Write the structure tokens for this entry.
Amino acid sequence: MRLSVIGCGYLGAVHAACMAKLGHDVVGIDVDSAKVASLGAGEPPFFEPGLAELLTEALESGRLQFSTDIADAAGSAVHFIAVGTPQKRTENGADLSHVAASVDALLPHLREGDVVVGKSTVPVGTARGLSTRITEACPSVTLAWNPEFLREGYAIKDTLEPDRLVYGLDDANSGAQLILDEVYAQALADGRPRLVMDYETAELVKVSANAFLATKISFINAMAEVCEATGADVSLLADAIGHDDRIGRRFLNAGLGFGGGCLPKDIRAFMARAGELGADQALTFLREVDSINMRRRSRMVDLAREVCGGSLLGQRIAVLGLAFKPNSDDVRDSPALSVAAQLQLQGAAVTAIDPQAVPNAARRFPDLAYATSVQEAVQNADAVLVLTEWEEYRTLNPEDLAGLVARPAIVDGRNCLDATAWRDAGWTYRALGRPKAAAGSAAAAAADARLIGEARPRVAAEPRA
Ligand code: UDX
């Protein structure tokens, strides 16, 4: 089939490449000429594992092109709308201007029988309004709403092997259903569930899925707060409750909380929309979900201050991880970057590193110092903070690092390190939602006791040979 994908960000670029991989002829369209040039050269403008290879393969097959000219969408049977719906600058609601602009721009190029397919995350009610607009201009064109559930870092797999396909259709839209079935023939042949529903339900499926995931994370982070107040261990708690199939262990990792381009803005837009609909009471709990999440960032700063002996002023802090999660270079609403910036603002001297996100972080916070290796970042540090659980940070050797720092204190913002291994190597190990030292561990207690205000003199912190 000939398909166009309007909007080539995380969602659209991956969708376009995956659709070409499935054998469709695809044109990806974006107003950003730099983005179009880089995608057309097989170079993703963001980090996503496997995407460069997939783009190259699709471009070489001749089935994928990119353009800044919306007129190139003409002749495609299906037009995916995959533009961003960021949070408005001054309020919680979603900014739909890109969706409206892309549909307006597309209208003159639509042909009889075309199907427009919305993939962007939008407030409930948007699709019905757009459908009216489209059918007024082009009566034979129909709109379907087909939300996307891809996770950054796994975007290709999630697109090619979705755990479900959701079609939001108007009553009169059965033709659109057949066309979508053709687009997704491979996934359907693989037995992926396909759920057909009205526009409103399809729009709500997406935002309620994200609201549920955010709630699950904030639930365990609320438990972390209680654990901190009682000396209990939230990681053990999560393992134990996660064995109950009804609860499940996934998305129950306590730590710095959620960030990124989706969960934070989607729950806020959802609350804003519920308010407009007079159903705000139904979602007031999401405000608490948001607050719990943001409190984790402040708690992390407090923990860093604590291991630095009560003040951040002049303390050298190494921050490992800036992306909002591993396998991504995305720093939008990143808890890690937010903590790094707060530490710096409170007087610490922060040196940060991330395997992929440094360029994006440096654009947002040019005042932080950025290192090119973990060894450089931790050199003479008074505290080391792991804020994004990249594999290479999870597997760091505590003995190797101990000789580089001024004070062997590590704060694990993602509960991703082996506490015993770090403590056994002489480090003070602290984490969100976990006790200061394992009960009965003399070495750990000694390391913790040694810590506060007892930085080794910096001259002693020569790197080990
Ligand atoms: C999310 C949804 O998962 C996806 O279905 C939707 O399409 C887009 O939004 P994404 O933003 O890529 O995807 O990230 P996700 O993997 O959901 O993680 C979101 C945030 O939650 C990250 O900051 C992550 O570190 C955090 N998180 C996740 C936790 O703090 N604990 C967990 O247990 C899981």
About this structure: Residues 267 and 286 are 7 Å apart (CA to CA). The longest strand covers residues 2-6.
